Amino acid sequence: MTAALILAGQLSAQGKxxxxxxVAPNSISFSEIRGYENWAVVAPSYRTDKSExxxxxxxxxxxxxxxxxxxxxxxxxxxxxxxxxxGWAERKHPSFPAALExxxxxxxxxxxxxxxxxxxxxxxxxxxxxxxxxxxxxxPYGKDAAFDQECSMCHTLVKDRDYVFTSYGRR
Length: 171
Description:
- The chain is an alpha+beta fold and 171 residues long.
- It has one domain (2-161): 3-Layer(bba) Sandwich (Chalcone isomerase), CATH 3.50.70.
- It contains 3 helices and 6 strands.
- It has helices at 2-12, 60-67, 147-155, and strands spanning 40-47, 52-58, 82-93, 96-113, 124-132, 137-140.
- A 6-stranded antiparallel sheet has the order 1-2-3-4-5-6.
């Protein structure tokens, strides 16, 4: 809950651009995750190769599936499942240098399950929006609609988990 409040505070402080009007090259709109700032935390993560602090949020559909044991029970996530990943540059906590905390927002990316719509990418649609601190705005990632193949190829590493890296930690 605390992480969600911190996330909401950081995201509500963002600027004037209507991020929900942004559309990825594969036609997935930022508006498909409207209200994500208030979604439950699935898990935190940290990318050592990008020095990036991340939090993964989920909609009710994917949270229900996780609670039912997906993907560990061998079942796929249902259509309508959405995961949102918010990534920040890292910085050492000023009062406790052994801890890392979020610094500048870098990206918001998400994946949406729709087996019929996203057949070419194993049932998942991907979108990434890169945040520019200087202009206080988001830009869609990718030169054309094929950028989602980049995401899909990476996610084949977890084919046995229905292409989802994120685990749902015990609560």
